[in-house]
Design a protein that fits this description.
The complex is a heterodimer of chains A (210) and B (185). Chain A is of the alpha+beta class and 210 residues long. Chain A has helices at 2-25, 34-45, 84-98, 122-131, 147-156, 193-206, and strands spanning 54-56, 61-62, 71-77, 108-114, 139-144, 161-163, 169-171, 175-178, 184-188. Chain B is built from nine helices and no strands. In chain B, helix 3 (27-52) crosses helix 4 (54-60) and helix 3 (27-52) packs across helix 9. Classes of the chains: A alpha+beta (210), B mainly alpha (185).
């Protein structure tokens, strides 16, 4: 009888421990994959876009302050990519088309950032941008030449890039929106084009998400 | 030299940075070799704890249920895609892996398994078989990359690893059900 009671107590302790473990391990049952946890954390932290030098498809060099007082809609890619990136950029184009033209260039700029600076020089980026009918002005494509700067940006925005054995990269993809002060305002699913466009237009109209 | 000592040696071997690094470089080795070997290290070391604290196990785990529950919780926890990722990127999670799998899962499995009725054993094996089929299906046919630190192809390999393990357990269950060992004595 006494043994039985001890067993019951032990079962409760174990279950309680397990519940706590899963609760902590998944941020209160909200994130079962690291990607979800990453996005949740980004939305909480709203990191600042670090000071890095971008070099765009026309060879211009500038930092994020170039886009002061504008929202910046960002994706990360490399042009030799044949899988996710074309889809990502094509979806980005659709968001670009859905945002009313009065905002484009005035209140919001689109920016595709390459994490493969060795291959993606301005000429390559220039060619690549034409596939997506990007004008190179309100939708720019740029690389970050400095390795340390590139790493600081990828780290602070939680972009994980793993080179594979065929000269390709595996990477996580999303739409990023940086606000007028250069802080990350939102991370959106790159497959939900309508939803992303709606969110962006909402923010542009109201100046905030609400 | 007793088995607890070999268990400790195995644990030290697995924790050694080059070994750990190699095993974690492939998703399927990470989950289907490193993690089970950590549990085995714990099972070997369980003898030491059973001899040292016999009353503790007798008192708190007399029917084996608390122990097997703890085993299931720890093992299922390490099957979350997220924990595998974080073991690679967060040191504290990696340390917790090397402690929880041998000492919480391994020790309690060894102490509990013999105490369970055959019904209890079958429930556990069937439960894991179903879980492994589910996870295999998830990892093979998931449209998204579940782990940031591994390539998709690794994810699919892991899925097949789960399905094969599940098939192995089904064969074992069938064998147990249809074959009567006493008929061969």
């Amino acid at each position: 009888m006494i043994k039985n009671r001890h067993n019951k107590i032990a079962v409760f302790i174990v279950l309680f421990f397990g519940l706590g473990l899963f609760f902590i391990g998944t941020d209160g049952f909200s994130a079962f994959t690291a990607e979800k946890a990453r996005v949740n954390k980004l939305l909480n932290d709203k990191p600042k876009f670090p000071e890095v030098t971008l070099e765009d498809s026309t060879g211009r060099k500038y930092s994020i302050s170039e886009f002061e007082d504008k929202y910046v809609f960002i994706t990360f890619l490399y042009t030799s990519c044949t899988t996710v990136c074309p889809e990502l950029e094509y979806n980005m184009k659709q968001v670009y088309d859905k945002v009313p033209s009065k905002y484009i260039g005035e209140d919001i700029v689109f920016l595709s950032i390459s994490f493969d600076p060795e291959r993606d020089d301005p000429a390559t980026l220039n060619k690549y941008k034409d596939f997506f009918k990007s004008d190179g002005e309100t939708w720019r494509m740029a690389r970050i030449n400095d390795k340390a700067e590139l790493k600081s940006l990828l780290d602070s925005f939680g972009v994980i890039v793993i080179p594979d054995e065929y000269g390709n990269f595996a990477h996580n993809s999303a739409f990023y929106l940086v606000d007028k002060k250069g802080s990350l305002a939102n991370v959106m699913d790159y497959k939900e084009i309508d939803e992303a466009a709606k969110t962006v237009v909402n923010i542009l109209e109201n100046g905030s998400e609400e | 030299m007793n088995q607890s000592f070999y268990g400790l040696l195995l644990l030290i071997f697995l924790v050694a940075p080059p070994v750990a690094h190699f095993m974690e470089s492939h998703m399927v080795i990470h989950m289907h070799m490193q993690m089970p070997m950590l549990v085995i290290a714990g099972m070997l070391m369980a003898r030491f704890f059973q001899k040292r604290f016999p009353t503790f196990f007798e008192k708190w785990n007399s029917n084996g249920i608390p122990g097997i529950l703890l085993f299931v919780i720890i093992v299922v926890y390490w099957m979350l895609p997220r924990t595998m990722d974080e073991a690679l990127t967060t040191n504290s999670v990696e340390v917790f892996k090397f402690i929880s799998l041998p000492f919480l899962a391994g020790v309690s499995l060894r102490d509990s398994w013999k105490k369970l009725s055959s019904l209890g054993k079958n429930i556990i094996i069937i439960g894991f078989t179903v879980l492994f089929i589910g996870l295999g299906w998830l990892y093979i046919w998931s449209p998204v990359q579940l782990c940031n630190n591994y390539l998709i192809i690794e994810q699919v390999t892991l899925g097949w690893g789960f399905l094969l393990t599940a098939i192995g357990m089904i064969v074992y269950l069938g064998y147990n059900f249809f074959i009567d060992p006493s008929a061969y004595e």
